Backbone:
């Protein structure tokens, strides 16, 4: 669980440091591992904000030794943000296996046995370097919340992909008013993992409301992964997982945005629209493009 400034967590942290101190050099190695850990660095950057330069040293070996040698009272009086970095690192680090190590907290006990048997296959979906996906995108897909209009309208949401500690994650935000039905609004956020499987980029996550999951399979990644260039577009199919009724997939396009995350406009729109270029409409298989262009005298963007 995340660090909390409580007597219980202070005691657990002190006990973990005392356990490690029994091995010569363990606290020195722990300080080095924390200072090199991307997730710990990201946590410290978030605390400091954008006005401070990143620190080369998050925690010094001498600090850990002092906490351990001077006892629980010394730990209790230490800076909380430093204790947070150490505590949360030990929770997820198998290399420093203390009583704080909780890799499967809240998950079925049998999962560890399954992971041990199939660790190589499970690890393979995270073995590709997906950092070139990192960034913000516009996510285009049919607006399917009103099924009878799903072939007429396109939803534009925000997608963010980021790699932390060797694991790539995504967040998708949908926050928009349906102007065809002003009393209906979409307001949700999905979070999940990004993986590489059998040539596809897979996004699998759950809605923050807890009643819906979403699955994306991008068979087209441009430029291709491994080219050394940042990904500019993902194209594939998405499924919403909710309830027991039959579901069909819908095509999607995620296009890298030049704007910051909070400036990407989210909306439900009908073609033609300035954001719906020909190649996006073609990728989404929206029919009647030529007719729409002729009727509105809108020039083709190619």
Residues:
């Amino acid at each position: 669980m995340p660090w909390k400034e409580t007597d219980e967590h202070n005691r657990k942290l002190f006990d973990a440091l005392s356990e490690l101190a029994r091995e010569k050099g363990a606290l020195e190695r722990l300080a080095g591992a924390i200072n090199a850990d991307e997730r710990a660095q990201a946590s410290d950057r978030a605390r400091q904000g954008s006005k401070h330069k990143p620190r080369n040293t998050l925690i010094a070996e001498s600090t850990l030794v002092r906490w351990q040698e001077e006892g629980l009272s010394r730990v209790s009086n230490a800076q909380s943000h430093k204790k947070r970095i150490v505590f949360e690192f030990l929770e997820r680090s198998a290399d420093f296996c203390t009583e704080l190590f909780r890799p499967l907290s809240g998950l079925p006990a049998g999962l560890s046995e399954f992971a041990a048997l199939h660790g190589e296959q499970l690890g393979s979906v995270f073995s590709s370097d997906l950092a070139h996906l990192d960034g913000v995108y516009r996510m285009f897909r049919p607006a399917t919340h009103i099924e009878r209009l799903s072939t007429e309208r396109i939803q534009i949401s925000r997608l963010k992909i980021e790699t932390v500690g060797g694991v790539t994650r995504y967040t998708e935000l949908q926050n928009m008013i349906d102007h065809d039905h002003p009393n209906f609004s979409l307001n949700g956020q999905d979070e999940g993992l990004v993986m590489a499987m059998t040539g596809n980029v897979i996004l699998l996550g759950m809605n923050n409301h807890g009643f819906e999951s979403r699955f994306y399979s991008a068979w087209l990644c441009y430029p291709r992964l491994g080219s050394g260039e940042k990904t500019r577009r993902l194209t594939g199919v998405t499924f919403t997982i909710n309830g027991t009724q039959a579901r069909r997939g819908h095509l999607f396009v995620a296009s890298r945005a030049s704007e910051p995350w909070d400036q990407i406009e989210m909306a439900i729109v009908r073609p033609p629209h300035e954001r719906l270029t020909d190649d996006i409409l073609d990728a989404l298989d929206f029919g009647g493009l030529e007719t729409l262009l002729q009727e509105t005298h809108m020039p083709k963007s190619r």
